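Whether sequence alone determines local backbone shape is best considered at the level of individual chains. Part of our work consisted of pairing the sequence of a single chain with a tokenised description of its backbone. This step matters because it turns folding into a mapping between discrete strings. For completeness, the protein is quoted in full, as a sequence line and a line of structure tokens:

_____
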Amino acid sequence: MKLKKLTAFIISVTAAISAVSCGSTASGDADTISRAPAAGEAASSSAPDVSAREDDAPSQNSGGDSSEESLTSAELSGEGIRKFGEEYEFEGVAGELDKSFREAALDLSAELLKKAASGDIAEGKNALVSPESVMFALALAGNGAWGDTRAAFEKLLGGDMDNVNKNLCALMTSARKSSDPRFSIADSIWIREGGSIVLRDSYAELCKKRLDAEGFIAPFDDDTLSRLNGWVSEKTSHMINSIKDRFYHNEAAVLVNCIAFEGTWQKEYTDGQIDENGIFTNASGQEEKCVMLSSTEDRYLADDKAVGFMKPYGDGNYLFAAILPNEGISIGDYISSMTGESLSEFLSSADGEVNASVKMPEFKFEWGKSIAENIKEMGLEAAFDGNADFSAMAENCGPGDLAIDDIIHKTFIDLNRNGTRAAAVTAITTKGFEDNAEPEIKEVTLDRPFIFAIVEARSGLPVFIGTLNSVQG
């Protein structure tokens, strides 16, 4: 009776299990993508082969002029945002996922649901995460990491970054071949213009060729915020309209992944299979009226703790899966015991000789939170601390110059008689450490007489100046 909380989650998992493959990872020295240098600052030019050995790691803060023209504030006037990396093309491939990557994806799926959603589940709330979206966003960051920081990403993602990139590239290629359901994956890299990062072109090239990441250099103002949220809305087919509500003063880059899934059922529901007066008993034991959908499915799932089923979309390349814990086993208890291996075994337990007589409710909800602490707990502390090394991302960043500040994750699902629409966004924000402290905030409340002025900005001269002693005129 508590099917509602877990069903949506499996959409992301089944995508990770799809049969797709990998190709070679792009690497090589390239010019730096420059920001506008601060006064008296020279842009740096050397860039590493991001697939080089750790003992060949780049030296930090090298001097010299950039071989690529810097983006100036004047050039940003008007539109205010410039794209980079457009000279590169996504290099898609097809085939099967590596065993190590698939196992890591399943482990991350179980752990992410367990850690990120446990609080909501304990309170009887709905929850939905997209492990695949999180993996794509982490790969954008992992490609820019070096040394121990890079090793932490590789441990979490199931292998060296070259292999991770190849497998994610394969997942993206597979998604783009699907017409029913429509399944899209999009990545983007947003760099603060005039900020602390001088981006390596080799990093931008790698992320474009393997993850098809769009690149933007922008002033991180209100217009940029609107553009970023607009990009998210577009890439999620307007299911999720925003991911950030502000930029922070020391925010250097934002790495974003979006996933949008829109699938119709392979077999349509007939009028006789739709009960407009269905009843669903919620986590508190209260009955709720709902639309209940009935069908017979040929993929019945079961183990000693749960039963379930799979239901195909469109051309059959994607499936909806449901897991219903046995009576006496709570959703929370079931998830706490879940592992990548147990999840895989359950999803592959279909018995071709047993069908499932299914009833499930129509439902729709959205979910979102910061998952930074959850990802830290999963082994990525090194990417957040003061010794984080993202020197493969930025020319002028050594250990301690740049770190992950937050990971924001939002999801949406609408399951009904026609099919399913689902979307996810994962945004990783990074911070520079040269100005790590937030400005001190002092309150000013104009609730008594005060002086005011209208000042000409260039000269600082008051055009008007006066006092307010009464708001009644």
Observations:
- Residues 55 and 419 are 51 Å apart (CA to CA).
- The mean pLDDT is 80.
- The chain is about 25% helix and 25% strand.
- The two ends are 65 Å apart (CA to CA).
